[in-house]
Design goal:
The complex is a heterodimer.
Chain A lengths: L11 H4 L32 H7 L1 E5 L2 E5 L5 E3 L4 E4 L6 H7 L9 H16 L3 E4 L7 H5 L3 H11 L3 E5 L13 E3 L1 E4 L2 E4 L9 E3 L4 E5 L2 E8 L3 E3 L10 E2 L14 E4 L5 E4 L5
Parallel strand pairs in A: 4-5, 5-6, 6-7, 9-10, 10-13, 11-14
Antiparallel strand pairs in A: 1-2, 2-3, 3-4, 8-9, 11-12, 12-13, 12-15, 15-16
Helix pairs in contact in A: 4-6
Chain B lengths: L6 H9 L6 H8 L5 E5 L6 H13 L9 E4 L3 H17 L6 E4 L5 H9 L4 E4 L1 H8 L4 H5 L4 E4 L2 H4 L3 H16 L4 E6 L5 H8 L5 E4 L7 E4 L17 H10 L3 E4 L3 H14 L6 E4 L5 H12 L5 E4 L14 E5 L5 H8 L11 E5 L3 H15 L13 H14 L4 H8 L10 H13 L13 E4 L2 E4 L5 H6 L9 E6 L7 E6 H5 L6 E4 L2 E9 L2 E6 L7 E2 L10 H11 L9 H13 L8 E8 L2 E7 L4 H17 L4 E6 L4 E5 L12 H9 L6 H14 L7 H5 L8 H11 L4 H10 L6 H11 L3 E5 L17 E2 L3 H17 L4
Parallel strand pairs in B: 1-6, 1-7, 2-4, 2-5, 3-4, 5-6, 8-13, 9-11, 9-12, 10-11, 12-13, 16-20, 18-21, 22-26
Antiparallel strand pairs in B: 14-15, 16-17, 18-19, 19-20, 22-23, 23-25, 24-25, 24-27
Classes of the chains: A alpha/beta, B alpha/beta.
Chain lengths: 270, 799
């Protein structure tokens, strides 16, 4: 499912040539220097009260949902949290393939964002909507501290990995593995199916510009919701990109992430 | 003493009735010295002076092998020198092979040159870098005797020069007897340039600078406008001058202005004088056509930009017109030197201020030229991002010994003071990424194997070669009017800017207000939007800031009782300013505040140059934000920053507390877009990220995450990383230019004149017409963004 699709998020330009694929794994995981308090990166909301003010509530197929400013989706009635396109292990994968040696901190940055939003929402179920790992090897070679961190987040929750085009196939970190999952009126899958209704998907990393600022965003219409990418090292696709053409119906809106979730109508296509 | 001129060459020169200039003879006399810097005016036979020792050493029947490498900043110059040099060489029947090698040289020719190099190779820093990255570099350069660096004064102002000096040091290792020659126009500090060329000792030869130039303001019938840079009001006067002279060069400060001016010039050119245009955005064929027409004497004038600051000597130019204030006296003097129709005859130049403020600036520049004072900010140590690239280049050529490479690097002028620890940090960055978290042990780029450093994967050499060079082009998109005719091209905007536009946004380009309609392929489509205020304006990152010397002279002019030398319109304007407010003073900081058009405004006359004024705008608006003054945006010129917002500033002094401004730079300014751009450029040069190239962009794979994310991540998790250290160093100069804010604050020493006024002042008025407005991303704008979204939702019936 989706494996054959060309991935528009394998950016060839920033990442350099794909060279060596052959090398062995097995070195011991490095220790963690403590991160400094964040300035440039967006913090997740601190408490439920604040979240209620900064999130955007809406319904899809009669399910009452909430788009959080961090880019995660909350379904309070089911105590469910959904995030998409974490791309954990991205810098490791690039280095392994002979590309750039990018700052190797994006996995912990993504996990700390995820930690914050889980802490704030206390979900019983977490759905990761695909492309959770940059590839299967990245999932297997997650450094020990990060593997433990992830295990702590997963503990005591129903954790569902939806397969994506980057990480198709089961991942060796526990949880349930599904191609897609249906809960009540909603279906969760990685790539939107044009004819579907009540569908929650990811994959496209949408973003939207308003008054000169470009933000990651949700895209919402009567039939579907597309989530922004949650991972730290992920690019974005403009809402009006050809790849998104035809997916969103009339009256669709973007919900911008940032200090608070801002709903905004999508301009009609010319 | 060196060999005498080869007999056939001496005979050829005598037959032409020429004699060597004294500095040409002096170059011959010092041919055996390790390094010589020759400073000579244009038209003084400088290039021949550089090549004479080579011709002598090669003689009539030279052995094969590369003898001299000549490096120029311009491809066109390399090709032109080849033609000029062949005249005496072929005229004298010398058996010397001369070839050029640039980005334009064919693949077959380049391959042949590596196998069988000519005696004299003419090239650019980037092509030399590529040659030195090949495994066979030691073979190619083993016989090298001399390196000639032309226009070294221009190269020394940028990272291209830093890279080139590293390459020359590499050449010196491959050919230990190598002698270095630098050819330069007039500079303010020759010993510093000599150190740059050769830190272990260098001769300085100065040719006779010739008579003083004939330079003045151009007589123009009408008054200059209040703002803008086109100089189009002066077209009738300029056309008269063109008709009176043989060949005129009309310099502009920007390409857009040159284009607009040229367009209007043609409309008024009723005598059909043949006039061409030349600038860096034009296609190569078009530029070559203009150059050829110029050489053939077919043109009476060329409208041009800095693209003609250097390069080909056109003997016929007898007038230079500078439109717009020269931002820098040294560059003005070098431009004037382009009117060099006869060596030892005065060059003639006329200045055309584009607006009233520039009238004052032009007068200040004229005085500086007459006083023989040149400006120049000393350049700091060689930037380490360039060194990181050089280490990768060295690895691409083959395994290297770290200690030997360090010894070689400190033999390059800009890196003479580099410590071994600094070098090792750059090597670690190139090898492992240099992170506090050692994550890439298995995937290192360079490995220490045997006793040498080498590429882990030899295939990594190809991307390293593709990424060589220190020129970072801004990604630009073409702007076209959307219409039935296919669209009139208006110009180019930066890609970053285009990405922020949404349909309906209006912006200023080429002097007109247009409405953004959409992106089509790689073109920005717009429609005309007459009579509306632009919401946003094109912000062009790199513009030269007016030099400290010039701004100081302008402040001095302001202190005069009256201005008999200035035209009446400008003198009247300054008097009015003195009457309703004050004129800025060198040792005080004037700050005006007044309401206008429903917004509160604050004007800071810091006279610190455009880049520093922009940084000041960022720092001050941030402090205003903290104080709840709701700033919305700012714009700046070389002299002032204009800030607008929702609240009036009644007590500005606390905004300029030096300690907190410095604290601001250290902390949150680092989250700013200018810093991110600085980081991106260094990350590309150092090899962390690859430069975008056009071909890839066209595939539509634009979904890359930006380098901003890498910057934020490093700041959070690895704040002492090498690239962040480099970014901080760059912030002291260049786009951030914090050094000049420090200078200004020291000069002012807390003497701030805060004036509360009822309306726009004469000196502030032109600032309202400045393009390049920068929004402040604060609470005010977040609120406006939410309001805008809500309004759109309501209009769409969704809320």
């Amino acid at each position: 499912m989706g494996k054959k699709l060309a991935c528009i998020f394998c950016p060839s330009n920033i990442l350099g040539g794909e060279l060596a694929r052959s090398a062995k794994r097995g070195a011991s995981p490095p220790s963690f220097p403590r991160p400094r308090p964040s300035r440039g990166l967006q913090p997740a909301p601190a408490c439920a009260m604040r979240r209620a003010m900064t999130a955007h509530a809406f319904t899809l197929s009669d399910a009452a949902l909430s788009a959080l400013p961090s880019g995660a989706l909350h379904w309070p009635d089911r105590r469910l949290l959904c995030v998409s396109d974490l791309h954990l292990g991205k810098s490791e994968r690039l280095a392994r393939r002979g590309g750039a040696l990018l700052p190797p901190y994006e996995t912990r940055e993504t996990l700390s964002r995820l930690d914050a939003v889980i802490e704030a929402t206390q979900p019983e179920t977490v759905i990761c909507l695909g492309d959770s790992f940059d590839d299967l090897t990245a999932a297997q070679s997650l450094p020990e501290p990060e593997r433990l961190w992830l295990a702590r987040l997963m503990a005591g929750r129903d954790w569902i990995w939806i397969e994506g085009n980057h990480d198709a196939g089961p991942v060796d970190v526990g949880g349930t593995h599904r191609a897609e999952v249906t809960l009540g009126p909603l279906t969760f899958r990685h790539i939107a199916a044009p004819a579907a209704t009540g569908e929650i998907s990811g994959h496209y990393h949408p973003k939207f510009s308003l008054r000169g600022q470009s933000r990651r965003c949700f895209l919402l219409d009567r039939n579907r919701l597309i989530l922004p990418a949650f991972g730290a090292y992920t690019g974005g696709l403009r809402h009006d990109d050809a790849a998104l053409a035809g997916l969103m119906g009339k009256g669709a809106i973007a919900i911008l992430t940032g200090p608070r979730a801002i709903p905004c109508p999508l301009p009609d296509r010319p | 003493m060196t060999a005498p001129l080869p007999a056939p060459l001496a005979k050829w020169i005598a037959a032409k009735g020429w004699a060597l200039h004294p500095h040409q003879q002096a170059m011959l006399d010092r041919a055996d010295d390790h390094a010589t810097l020759l400073i000579a005016p244009t038209g003084g036979g400088k290039t021949l002076a550089g090549f004479l020792p080579t011709l002598c050493e090669l003689g009539e029947n030279p052995p094969s092998g590369l003898h001299t490498i000549y490096i120029s900043p311009l491809k066109a110059l390399a090709a032109d020198i080849r033609r000029n040099l062949r005249t005496p060489v072929e005229g004298a029947g010398l058996n010397i092979r001369i070839e050029d090698r640039t980005g334009d040289t064919t693949y077959t020719q380049r391959r042949r040159q590596r196998a069988d190099p000519p005696h004299i190779l003419l090239t650019t820093p980037e092509s030399l870098a590529l040659l030195l990255s090949y495994e066979d570099a030691p073979k190619i350069f083993a016989s090298l005797q001399r390196v000639i660096i032309d226009e070294i004064h221009a190269l020394a102002e940028s990272k291209r020069g830093d890279q080139l000096m590293l390459l020359v040091a590499r050449l010196q290792s491959l050919a230990p007897g190598l002698r270095r020659v630098g050819l330069s126009a007039t500079v303010e500090d020759p010993p510093a340039l000599a150190k740059f060329l050769a830190p272990k000792g260098c001769n300085i030869l100065a040719a006779d600078p010739g008579p003083d130039p004939d330079i003045a303001m151009l007589d123009i019938d009408s008054d200059p406008p209040w703002s803008g840079g086109g100089g189009r009001y002066a077209i009738p006067a300029i056309l008269r001058e063109v008709a009176r002279h043989r060949t005129t060069l009309i310099f502009h400060n920007t390409r857009a202005q040159a284009e607009l001016f040229f367009h209007d010039l043609w409309l008024q050119n009723t005598d059909d004088l043949p006039i061409g245009i030349h600038h860096g955005s034009l296609a190569r064929e078009q530029r070559e056509r203009v150059e050829a027409a110029m050489v053939a004497g077919a043109l009476r004038a060329v409208v041009c930009t800095g693209s003609l600051d250097l390069g080909i000597d056109w003997g016929d130019v007898d007038l230079v017109i500078q439109v717009g204030a020269p931002k820098n006296v040294k560059r003005l003097v070098q431009r004037i030197g382009r009117a060099n129709h006869r060596y030892n005859a005065p060059s003639k130049a006329r200045l055309v201020p584009a607006n009233r403020f520039e009238v004052v600036e032009c007068h200040a520049a004229l005085d500086a030229v007459r006083d023989h004072t040149l400006d120049g900010e000393p350049r700091g140590a060689g930037p380490r991002d360039v060194l990181c690239q050089h280490i990768l280049l060295t690895a691409a050529a083959g395994p290297f010994d770290a200690a030997a490479l360090y010894e070689e690097v400190v033999n390059a002028g800009p890196y003479a003071a580099l410590t071994r620890a600094q070098f090792d940090a750059c090597l670690d960055f190139a090898a492992t990424g240099g992170y506090a978290l050692k994550a890439y042990d298995r995937w290192q780029k360079l490995l220490f194997r045997g006793d040498k450093w080498q590429l882990r994967d030899p295939r990594a050499a190809a991307p390293i070669r593709q990424n060589l060079g220190t020129i970072i082009d801004t990604e630009t998109l073409k702007v076209r009017l959307r219409n039935r005719m296919g669209g009139l091209p208006l110009g180019e905007v930066e890609e970053d800017f285009a990405a922020t536009l949404t349909q309906g946004d209006t912006f200023l380009i080429g002097g007109q207000v247009v409405r953004f309609e959409g992106l089509k392929e790689l073109t920005v489509e717009v429609s005309r939007s007459p009579g509306r205020d632009p919401k946003v304006a094109v912000f062009n990152g790199t513009r030269f800031a007016t030099s400290t010397l010039l701004t100081r002279r302008i402040l001095d002019i302001f202190q005069q009782e009256s201005w008999p030398d200035l035209p009446a319109h400008t003198a009247g304007w300054l008097s009015l300013q003195r009457q309703v407010s004050r004129l800025p003073q060198p040792d005080r900081l004037l700050v005006e505040s007044f309401p206008h058009d429903g917004r509160e405004h604050l004007v800071i006359y810091g006279f610190a140059g455009r880049n520093a004024q922009a940084t000041l705008g960022l720092l001050v608006t941030k402090r205003m934000e903290e104080q709840g003054l709701a700033p919305l945006g700012f714009t700046c010129t070389d002299y002032a920053t204009l800030i607008w917002g929702l609240e009036a500033v009644h007590n500005p002094a606390p905004l300029f507390d030096p300690a907190s401004l410095r604290e601001g730079l250290e902390t949150w300014l680092h989250g700013n877009a200018v810093m991110k751009r600085t980081f991106r450029n260094s990350a590309i040069i150092a090899g962390l990220i690859e430069r975008n190239n056009q071909g890839r962009r066209k595939t539509g794979r634009q979904a890359t995450f930006s380098s901003d994310i890498l910057y934020d991540t490093l700041r959070k998790y690895d704040p002492d990383h090498l690239l962040l250290q480099i970014t901080r160093e760059e912030a002291e100069r260049g786009l951030v230019d914090f050094g000049r804010i420090e200078d200004m604050l020291a000069r002012v020493a807390g003497r701030i004149d805060a004036l509360r006024l009822t309306r726009v002042t004469p000196l502030a008025a032109p600032l309202f017409l400045e393009p390049g407005r920068i929004p402040v991303q604060g609470a005010g704008r977040e609120r406006l963004m939410q309001d805008a979204a809500l309004r759109l939702m309501q209009e769409a019936g969704l809320a």
